[in-house]
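By way of example, we now present a protein record of this kind:
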Amino acid sequence: MNLYLKLLSGSLRSRMQYKMNFLVSSLSYGLIMAVDFVLLAAILERFDDVKGWNLYEVGLLYGISSVAITLYRVFGVEIHNFERYMVEGEFDSLLIRPVSPLSLLLTKNLDLSRIGGTAQGVIILVISIIGLSLDSFDMFLLLLYLPISIASGVVICFSLGLLTATFAFWTQRIKDFQTFTLYAPFNAASYPMNIYPGWLKIIFFTVIPVGFMNYTPILFLLDKGGSIWNLAWPPAVALGFLFLSLRFWYFGIRHYHSTGS
């Protein structure tokens, strides 16, 4: 852990050498993501709710999903861009170092421009929580659980990213896979799961379990169904999925064939 923090600190210092670029890119990315929610808000303002979910309730789902995926993109940029290591043969250089390849990938680079998206997600969460006008106990419970929900979302997103990256050991290219394993699922998780057909909901609660990070706990926290177990599922699923993704990653490394270049 100490080595990880030192490597991460070095990466952070190198990125902050260009402060203006960081500020501009963060603001731009945050504004781009904000446009998506503005369009959603306009639709909900016209139709009042979507399958029983009003603007502020959907805002909770949207905010959690946004914060989770942007935090993953901050720290997991090299995992997300792992295709380059296969195509350009750079992964070999990681294998000869006395540190695990995964640790090196997680500390090699930080995409600080994504922080703008994280801030945008947090702002939407704050606005949504205020707009819900919950009683004191429900508000306390929601605020207490939000960090757990976001952390579960980050772990699920990282696990999906790592699983997708692992396929590069056999396919070399993964950009097309990311559309189906990251972009589309997390965009779908920004909205209530009950708007999707049954077969798609099954996918979002099994193969790509994004429904657990926000929809499952928010159902219970907003008194829309479920039980207290709804609060236990997100961290349990996140940890279980992380375990499976790490096993698959190490399986992929064992079957990796060097480029020889």
In short: Residues 136-166 form the longest helix (31 residues). DSSP finds 14 helices and two strands in the chain. The mean pLDDT is 84.
